[in-house]
Write a structure and sequence with these properties.
Radius of gyration of chain A: 22 Å
Number of strands of chain B: 12
Number of helices of chain A: 11
Structural class of chain A: alpha+beta
Order of helices and strands of chain A: EHHEEEEEHEHHHHEHHEEHEEEEHE
Shape of chain B: globular
Largest interface: A-B, 27 and 30 residues
Shape of chain A: elongated
Oligomer: heterodimer
Number of strands of chain A: 15
Strand content of chain A: 25-35%
Strand order of the largest sheet of chain A: 11-14-13-12-15
Chain lengths: 375, 249
């Protein structure tokens, strides 16, 4: 297992962080993060060969000039410039859930049973195996080192993906979803799996997870009930676990909830963890983002303190995103030239007019570039 | 009046009460208050005034009040890629036996041994079959008998506790006393009507499916000797076996 990194230097100024497309050179870092991540993130397997294969696919996806097939995955890494460009987090996008197969999940439904003769009427919670999210774009593989969780870095890590999707919308579904791990303890005991999956597999949760790595979940669904599962028949502990979030995923889940994702409808067929979904156009970062040419200005030339923004370079290959103070004016994004360097641009002068997509760091502050809302 | 072996079996009038007999379903006999069923009583030849067992015949059940049963079946799930193969017991709520005639409301005097009880039940059931015989030319419906399901030593139904109770939180015996012989018909509207996997039920409930209470074993044996078979239908409330006999038997 790769060695862990020393603690980062404090404080966490927003300029320290750069999100960029992952490259094959990030394999060691990704392996380290995968080993540190929690049970349940099957898109970040602690397996060097599997990670290398995912990185290879990701590099091809970023670089490909072909028409998108839906098979693409995109992996990103987050660097801390104040820690020698160390990779401190990762996240990903799968262009089409269940590509070339079906994406299975359980849908929460309510059935009403009534007997007039017994003067009884019951609302029954049921879980229905469904394919509704097949073809949705999936946000995957989120992990950030715990030391950075309290900083603004998770916001950049999670939400810059949405700027990427918004900018290259033709490569993605207009519907976005994301799985979060459900309840399981350190020994791999998972109350939902024990009550549902285990009855059909006769294997424990970690063993099932190992089976799932690198496979579509279709094989699970082939062994699961095709009809509804009547939740009142499950043990109370399993009922309670439906849609419950593993505490290790509270941070990325909260970011998605703030974006406007709905978490009431779908749960994972393995561990009952919540699956959030939303229309891309309804997500706050996307709604509030604007794409426009850059207008660089010398450091110190700005008036006042423009609000912090998530600022992304609108290029698929070599995609980068940073946090920067930015101001929307006269159809341009006006920001300090030092941000150009952080975005990987050779020189601010030579890159004048480079297309950027940016959204306010603070949620709910109106369209990008509006006054106020500084983080 | 008709005599079978050492028993006398006769058809009873609707107003003959038999409170001294104990219903196999555990509740007091509902009484002969329904004009539709026909009823038979069996007595010892030596004491024709004292009924020892009672059996009723209800015609074409489920045509006035819908009546449901669970049909047990199997579902096979396989994932060849993983060499996993699973065979699962299933229950499906349905009305397969609608229109059948039913032997119902079995009640028997306390203190009889199993051999006596089986002989009494055989005499009564045989009398019912003979009473139906003149109708054979008209094409008789199947004849069924719902047996009371297994009970725990405390008198509770593990099947009800494991399934029905989750959808109607009443004690089964109390609910049956309150709603009479049509309780199963009414409660079916509250039960899962999509395919149900037995694996979701507790082991005791699964074990109770298709069984019967010890008090009903003589009746089951008597019916089996007359050509009745269990074809994997069970009562929706307590999982008791439904014995079936073709109309031509």
């Amino acid at each position: 297992m790769p060695a862990t990194r020393p603690s980062p230097a404090l404080p966490f100024s927003p300029e320290r962080f750069v999100l960029r497309a992952a490259t094959m050179a990030d394999l060691d870092a990704l392996e380290r993060l995968a080993h540190a991540s929690a049970v349940g993130i099957t898109t970040l397997p602690p397996d060097r060969a599997a990670l290398a294969a995912r990185l290879q696919r990701s590099c091809e996806s970023f670089a490909s000039s072909d028409e998108p097939s839906g098979e693409e995955i995109y992996l990103f890494v987050l660097e801390d410039a104040a820690a020698g460009q160390a990779v401190i987090g990762t996240c990903g996008i799968a262009a089409s859930a269940g590509f070339a197969d079906r994406f299975y999940c359980f849908r929460n439904e309510t059935i009403v049973h009534a007997s007039p003769a017994l003067r009884a009427s019951n609302r029954i919670h049921t879980l229905h195996l469904c394919h509704s999210l097949t073809g949705h774009t999936l946000l995957t593989s989120f992990y950030i080192e715990p030391a950075y969780e309290a900083s603004v870095a998770p916001q950049l890590l999670s939400r810059a993906r949405l700027l990427f999707i918004a900018e290259f919308a033709e490569r993605f579904s207009p519907h976005i979803a994301s799985e979060s791990p459900g309840l399981a303890d350190d020994e791999g005991r998972c109350p939902f799996w024990d009550a549902v999956g285990r009855r059909f597999f006769e294997m424990d949760y970690p063993a099932a997870e190992r089976l799932a790595v690198g496979r579509s979940k279709a094989f699970i669904a082939e062994l699961m009930p095709q009809g509804p599962i009547y939740v009142p028949l499950l043990p109370e502990e399993a009922q309670w676990a439906i849609g419950q979030l593993n505490p290790v995923a509270e941070l990325p889940f909260a970011i998605l909830q703030d974006e406007g994702f709905d978490s009431e409808t779908y749960v994972d067929i393995f561990d009952g963890g919540p699956i959030v979904e939303a229309r891309l156009a309804m997500l706050r970062t996307v709604q509030q983002s604007r794409a426009a040419p850059a207008a660089w200005q010398p450091p110190g030339a700005r008036h006042g303190q423009p609000p912090w923004h998530l600022v992304a370079l609108a290029r698929r290959e070599g995609f980068r995103a940073v946090l920067a103070r930015a101001h929307w004016t006269q159809g341009h994004w006006r920001l300090d030239s030092e941000a150009a360097g952080r975005l990987g641009l050779a020189s601010a002068g030579a890159e004048a007019g480079t297309r950027l997509r940016a959204a306010p760091l603070a949620q709910g502050s109106g369209p990008a570039g509006a006054e106020g809302g500084a983080a | 009046m008709k005599t079978t072996g050492s028993w006398i079996v006769r058809e009873a009038s609707a107003d003959e009460l038999t409170p001294e007999l104990i219903s196999l379903h555990g509740e007091p006999p509902p009484g002969f208050d329904d004009p539709a069923p026909r009823h038979w009583l069996a007595c010892a030849e030596a004491a024709p005034e004292r009924p020892l067992a009672r059996l009723s015949l209800e015609r074409q059940i489920g045509l006035r009040v819908p009546h449901a049963w669970y049909r047990l079946g199997w579902a096979v799930h396989a994932a060849p890629e993983l060499q996993l193969f699973r065979r699962q017991r299933t229950l499906m709520l349905g009305h397969d036996l609608t229109g059948s005639d039913a032997l119902s409301r079995p009640a028997i005097a306390p203190g009889l041994d199993d051999a006596q009880a089986e002989s009494l039940w055989r005499a009564l059931a045989d009398a019912v079959l003979r009473a139906r015989a003149p109708d054979i030319g008209a094409g008789l419906p199947a004849l069924i008998a719902e047996l009371p399901g297994p009970r725990t030593p405390q008198g509770e139904s593990a099947f009800w506790q494991g399934l029905g109770w989750h959808f109607h939180r009443r004690d089964l015996a109390t609910a049956r006393r309150s709603h009479g012989p049509h309780f199963d018909s009414h409660v079916a509207a509250l039960l899962p009507r999509q395919l149900l996997y037995a694996a979701f039920l507790p082991a005791a409930a699964q074990a109770a499916m298709g069984g019967c209470s010890p008090s009903a074993r003589p009746l089951q044996a008597a019916l089996a000797s007359l050509g009745f078979r269990w074809r994997e239908h069970v009562a929706v409330s307590d999982g008791g076996a439904v014995m079936e006999c073709d109309g031509s038997a």
